[in-house]
Amino acid sequence: MKQAPAAQSPAPAPPASPPAQPPRGGGDPPALWIFGYGSLVWRPDFAYSDSRVGFVRGYSRRFWQGDTFHRGSDKMPGRVVTLLEDHEGCTWGVAYQVRDEQNPGYLGPAPEEAIATQILACHGFSGHNLEYLLRLADFMQLCGPQARDEHLAAIVDAVGAMLPCFCPTKQALALV
Q1: For residue 17, is pLDDT > 80?
Q2: In the chain, is it the N or the C terminus that has fewer CB atoms within a 10 Å radius of its CB?
């Protein structure tokens, strides 16, 4: 399968009406679309034939999912994004992934400062949790600049405020 680049010209603002369904061929079954709203926006780890920058309404992106492999460890899970149902929300990404409420890795809400501390302290097999945050923020700035992701911006700001003096200790991390 051919892999097409995800980044194109700036994405349009969310339309007032729901987007149309992807076109279907004659008797072909409907196409399967996976919506990447986290690391899949910069590193899809599967073959694909087409990609589209877009959004999903009714969900907000949050750093509330624990990751003990790619961005953290069993002792110190990193934070990656998950989707939270939010009727006013609009999450941009690259062309559907539903969080399972029974997921044991789901960390849930936390103060931005606690999330930022955890992101700064964690790394896993795929790299540092900070890289995950910054790559996602870069994607949003490049591909969805008119979309406002307040949670993402708050986490970036909290990390930025901590970065100059961050030195993780067991005592500080116990607050997470």
Answers
A1: no
A2: N
